[in-house]
């Protein structure tokens, strides 16, 4: 072998070694973050992955692993699993946290306020988020998470059944009294329904009706000025809702699956025409449109009365960044949650899933493009949120022992809904007892954080 060939071979070996070293170094520079959420269906993970793919194109040194740890869309399970993994030193970087778990997420010390991680440009973008939405994530002056999968309750109805009962499907019920009147007509028409209306056994709907009346669910500014120490289960607003609910039940107009918080089961009952009216989350809008085998109507959550126009609370969840990350991972996590909730991706998420846009720019762009002219059902929850006042009532209640407190009101509701009509005073007495039990839960919890 000539000297030139030897030198050429050595140069080639050196070049290949250098290239390999660069590739290894590049792989070592990859920042990997884990994003855990509740979605395990066939629809929403695809939208999430599409957004992630675009993010990784813009941030080629970041890899985002997106996954769900359960198949039941259980916010509590996701939340507790993230905390358990954090204790083991295996915390995910970004976690979807349900709005009702806000106080616990702050108290337990596993999360970093997003306002501490955001760049000046990212902070400036917060001005675009709907005020009634952003306020839900501010505790003690700190913005903890970014809103993401927003929903509110709406009313779905069977337009074919309305027509058969002599009702105008273009003029759906607007108040409690209107729903009762519609149920009288629908059930009198003997159309084969088990009952007139169903919705999940949950406090979420009661909390909406309280908010509509510009009233609070707990004290201390709905738990936002200071820790909640009292619950207003026996307020006039809660009482009005429970009296109406009991009247529907006693007349055979209301039904539910018998399971607490069974959003999916209640939706199936409506789709299989066990009831002609259904109240549930707007998050299921795409699924109802896809699977309804009858004329579908969508309208606003009924008002307790015509003057109860303060608006609804923000439902769903947000994205929060966990502690115990490297500086590079923390930066990548913050960049990802802001990208996930940008105007373009806010619109993509809304159109792909039915969740409500969080940004005014998203709303304005969709209106300008005529999207809601072609998709009027999607406009219902969006309008319901946009027209809600931004105040402590619509911000929703922040409660430490969220599940324990709300379970007391659920237990009271089940006690009231026994098929027999109860007096207003009897219902108030049951709610007052539940209030005492819930406030004992609050006291026990708050003692741990004094």
Written overview of the protein:
51% of the residues lie in helices and 13% in strands. The chain is α/β, with parallel strands linked by helices and 450 residues long. The strands form three sheets. Strands 1, 2, 3, 4, 7 and 13 form a six-stranded mixed beta sheet that branches. Strands 10-9-11-8-12 form a five-stranded mixed beta sheet. The protein has helices at residues 3-28, 44-58, 75-87, 102-107, 114-117, 120-125, 131-134, 159-164, 176-188, 204-212, 219-223, 236-250, 263-271, 285-291, 327-340, 343-353, 360-368, 371-374, 376-386, 392-395, 402-416, 424-447, and strands at 31-37, 62-68, 94-98, 111-112, 138-139, 142-143, 146-151, 153-158, 197-198, 254-255, 277-281, 296-300, 315-322. The protein contains 22 helices and 13 strands. Mean pLDDT is 92; it is low at 3-27. It starts with a helix and ends with a helix. Helix 2 (44-58) runs antiparallel to helix 16 and helix 10 packs across helix 12 (236-250). It has two domains: 30-151 and 314-386, 3-Layer(aba) Sandwich (D-Maltodextrin-Binding Protein, domain 2), CATH 3.40.190.10; 153-312 and 392-447, D-Maltodextrin-Binding Protein, domain 2. Helix 2 (44-58) links the parallel strand 1 (31-37) and strand 2.
């Amino acid at each position: 072998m000539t000297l030139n060939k030897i030198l050429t071979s050595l140069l080639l070996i050196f070049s290949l070694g250098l290239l390999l070293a660069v590739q290894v170094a590049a792989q070592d520079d990859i920042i990997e973050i884990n994003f855990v959420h509740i979605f395990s269906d066939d629809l929403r993970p695809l939208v999430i992955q599409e957004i992630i793919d675009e993010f990784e194109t813009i941030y080629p040194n970041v890899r985002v692993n997106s996954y769900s740890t359960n198949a039941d869309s259980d916010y509590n399970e996701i939340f507790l699993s993230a905390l358990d993994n954090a204790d083991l030193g295996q915390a995910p970087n970004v976690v979807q946290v349900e709005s009702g778990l806000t106080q616990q997420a702050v108290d337990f010390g596993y999360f970093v306020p997003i306002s501490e991680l955001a760049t000046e440009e990212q902070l400036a973008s917060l001005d675009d988020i709907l005020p009634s939405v952003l306020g839900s994530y501010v505790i003690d002056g700190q913005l903890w998470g970014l809103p993401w999968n927003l929903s509110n309750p709406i009313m779905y109805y069977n337009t074919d059944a309305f027509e058969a009962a002599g009702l105008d499907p273009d003029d759906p019920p607007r108040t409690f009294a209107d729903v009762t009147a519609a149920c009288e007509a629908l059930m009198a028409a003997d159309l084969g329904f088990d009952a007139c209306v169903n919705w999940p056994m949950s406090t979420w709907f009661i909390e909406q009706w309280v908010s509509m009346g510009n009233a609070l669910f707990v004290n201390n500014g709905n738990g936002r000025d200071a820790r909640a120490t009292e619950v207003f289960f026996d307020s006039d607003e809660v009482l009005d809702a429970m009296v109406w609910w009991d009247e529907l039940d006693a007349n055979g107009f209301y039904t539910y699956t018998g399971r607490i918080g069974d959003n999916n089961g209640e939706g199936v009952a409506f789709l299989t025409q066990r009831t002609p009216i259904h109240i549930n989350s707007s998050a299921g809008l795409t699924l109802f449109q896809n699977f309804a085998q009858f004329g579908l109507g969508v309208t606003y959550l009924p008002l307790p009365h015509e003057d109860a126009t303060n608006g609804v609370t923000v439902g769903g969840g947000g994205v929060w960044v966990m502690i115990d990350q490297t500086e590079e991972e923390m930066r990548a996590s913050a960049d990802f949650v802001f990208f996930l909730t940008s105007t373009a991706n806010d619109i993509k998420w809304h159109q792909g899933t039915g969740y409500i846009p969080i940004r005014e720019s998203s709303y304005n762009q969709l209106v300008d493009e005529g999207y809601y002219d072609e998709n009027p059902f999607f406009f219902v929850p969006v309008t319901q949120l946009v027209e809600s006042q931004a105040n402590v009532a619509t911000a929703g209640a922040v409660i430490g022992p969220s599940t324990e407190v709300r379970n007391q009101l659920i237990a009271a509701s089940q006690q009231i809904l026994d098929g027999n009509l109860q007096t207003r005073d009897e219902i108030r007495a049951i709610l007052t007892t539940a209030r005492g039990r819930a406030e004992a839960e609050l006291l026990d919890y708050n003692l741990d954080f004094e």
